[in-house]
Amino acid sequence: MANKTAKIKLRAFRILNPALTEPHSDIIPLLQKVLTQESTAQQRRMRLNENDADEDLLSNFAWQQNYSYLFGMMLRIIPADNGGVIDSGLFAQHTITMAEVNAGDSNQSQYKDHFYFAINKEYLVTNLPGSYSIDRLQTYINWLLNPVRGARLFEITPVTKIPDGMKLSEIRGIEFIGSSGAPSVTAGVVNPANSTTTKMQELKTSLLDLLFADTSSISDIERDQIISAKLLLTVKRKPHDMANEDYHRVMGAVTRQITNDSGIAIISRNGNKFTGEYIKVVQDIIVEKTTGNRLVEEQLKQKMEMFLNELNKNF
């Protein structure tokens, strides 16, 4: 009988460097300081809200031998006092009532969901579903590093690419598509159906604030430079003047706010449209499962390591 397998989509992210004078983010040495042999799971429990007992937890982790990268598993846990947990002692009774099942125990925790990730000094890969923002993991990492990171806040943005078969000079515009029933905003594209068309310099400040709301490392001055780069991309006659680095920086910041791949599209000069799935860097992998229907974690870890190596080489 063939082994059971699971098809997994790995998403790629870049660790933005908060110190422009340093060659990389320095995040790995900081993680080494807090994730030691003496670290306990109790110390790694992050409460999501003071008035609620939901928590995020780095429940398991493993360092590569030379500390080149970290592999970890994140749990979302909720209190068991909302019921659904059957204490083993109840099975000794003649019957078990729903009242006993629903009673729960405020001192117990319940598993809700989990995901895996691997991180090196420049990149992070994860199987966190695309319907979830990377904010979830970014928030936890900054919380975990709070005792050692000082004033630095690490930001994580999607690794992006120019759609296959397209040159940077062939990009005509970027289209931001709203939710069902909402108008879209298109940059440099003339009158597509059911959309509001505008030149980039006419975009309202509120839209820019929405797109870059969680990207605090982009200062106002820097933001102006990025807007200029986007104008080169959509308005100037020679959009190839825009550097690849600027393109990836802009697209990483913008796509970070959009979890739905259909929420953003690049429009080519010949009218072709490439949605987020052609812009974000992802990798589909196959991982074997155990007889208990769980992922073979060592296999997943090695495939994540290979993806990190590809990112180091190609981006």
Q: Main β-sheet: number of strands, strand sense, barrel status?
A: 8 strands, antiparallel
Number of strands: 13
Rg for CA atoms? 23 Å
Task: Write down the overall mean pLDDT.
Answer: 78
Helices and strands, in order, run as EHEEEHEEHEEEEHHHEEEH
Helix-strand category:
alpha+beta
Strand residue content: 25-35%
Shape: globular
Low-confidence spans: pLDDT under 50, at least 5 residues?
179-204, 227-239
Percent helix, as a range, is: 10-25%
Q: Total helix count?
A: 7
Features of this protein?
315 residues; alpha+beta; 8-stranded antiparallel beta sheet; 5-stranded mixed beta sheet; 7 helices; 24% helix
List the helices and strands and how they pair.
Blueprint: E1 5-16, H1 27-34, E2 45-49, E3 52-63, E4 70-79, H2 98-103, E5 109-119, E6 123-126, H3 135-144, E7 155-158, E8 171-176, E9 184-187, E10 195-198, H4 205-211, H5 220-234, H6 244-255, E11 264-268, E12 273-275, E13 282-288, H7 297-314
Parallel strand pairs: 9-10
Antiparallel strand pairs: 1-6, 1-7, 1-13, 2-3, 3-4, 4-5, 5-6, 8-9, 8-11, 11-12
Short characterization:
With 315 residues, the chain is α+β, with helices and mostly antiparallel strands.
What does this protein structure show overall?
By secondary structure, the protein is of the alpha+beta class. Helices cover 24% and strands 28% of the residues. The longest helix is centred in the last third of the chain and has 18 residues. About 12% of the residues have low confidence.
